[in-house]
Design a protein that fits this description.
By secondary structure, the protein is an alpha+beta fold. It has helices spanning 2-13, 26-29, 35-47, 49-70, 121-187, 193-228, 262-283, 328-394, 400-434, and strands spanning 75-78, 81-93, 96-116, 288-299, 311-320. The protein folds into two domains: 2-72 and 119-286 and 327-442, Up-down Bundle (Outer membrane efflux proteins (OEP)); 77-116 and 290-320, Outer membrane efflux proteins (OEP) (Single Sheet). 62% of the residues lie in helices and 13% in strands.
Length: 445
Amino acid sequence: MLIINGLAEAKQTKAEGDSKIEYLNIAWWRNYNDDILIEHLQNLYQNNYDLKNTELKIKESEKIVKLEFASELPSVSFDGFLSRDFRSSEQRFGSMSIPSYAQNNFQLPLTASYEIDIWGKNRLKTKSAEQKLEIVKEAQRAVYISLTSDFASDYYNLIKTDELIKIQDELVKTQQEILDKIKIKYDIGMCTINEVLTEEKLLTSFKEERNNLEDKKETLINVLRAYLALRDGDVLRTSYSDIKLIKNIPEQFNTNIIENRPDFLQSEADIKRLGYDVKVARKELLPSIIIFGQIGLNAYNFSDLFKSFTQLASAGIMPRLDVFSGGRKMAFLKFKKYQYDEALNNYEKTIVNDIKEVNSALSEYKTSKENLSQAENRVKIQDKIYSLVQDKTQIGSGSNLELLYSKEADLITQKDKVSNTINYLISTISLYKATGGKNLTEENI
């Protein structure tokens, strides 16, 4: 356990060089007091292909920002030109004629150009690309929150299935004992065949339920392997008896809790991005000014190429304005305005949906918490009943068959408690996911 904790601390120390480790929110997952879960989440961080792809998308977006920023800088290129005019019968320059004309041409210039960003158009394009990058970063964080939450939910469902299989095995064993005793009663004429058939039917349903649990267990293991990019082998997990419940989660939140959600931050960044795009579309209607120049060598004989008189230099300013473009630029401006209005509507819709999801997750959390409390009370009551039946059996006033029925009822209430316990844990994970990866135990709401 100390090795796992040390690994987690080491990776958190590494956060300066690898900022995405913070998306795992290890501080939150430590509330579950499960070092095996922490280790799995760290392996998920290292090996999951979906997370690797999100990192590649970040790098792609960063390069797009660099591409846009490059348009703010001057460009310099080498445009070499080597040619030869082969002999022809005659070469004319107006009234002058040169017979048997042939000539070489060597040009080796450096060409520079720069668009003066007097309207700030290129800077706005870069800012728009930066907002696209923010959107992709929030999309990456959303994937982290979703994957870790889904993994943890399946992990605890697997623990629940393990425990339910144990109880189900005991149920099958107990029901088999009940059936054996009922058959004895039938053989001596103390019960009808219907009672035997009823117990046999119940036994088959218990066995069927156990088979379904085994199938669910195998499915969950395969799902968790896929998360961890494992091809085979079992998935290490803690036992049901070692799980810890989180008790200090608030039961109400302010609406500003949604401001941490990735989709909310994405919608904000999208509004900013399209705001920049609208400004760019307006500035496209204005003239642009380009400074250009060349410096290099120009010669007609290779032997003269590097002599002083072959030096070439030119410079100029080129103002440019589209007088007529068929309404293309105005249509583009209106298109961007419509996109901006659509982004505003999506922003309002996101707020409504986010509040709905948080409220739904909060309602699920409260319900599962209350259900767990009721299940615990039911187990206590059934334990008392089972204890009383045991006492009756010991003093001879109760039958073994009655004791088995009571034991069976006790096992069924234990199953309910196991299910409600894990459902409560999963509801806390759903609430964490709905609030955008908030460490809810640290929220003073």
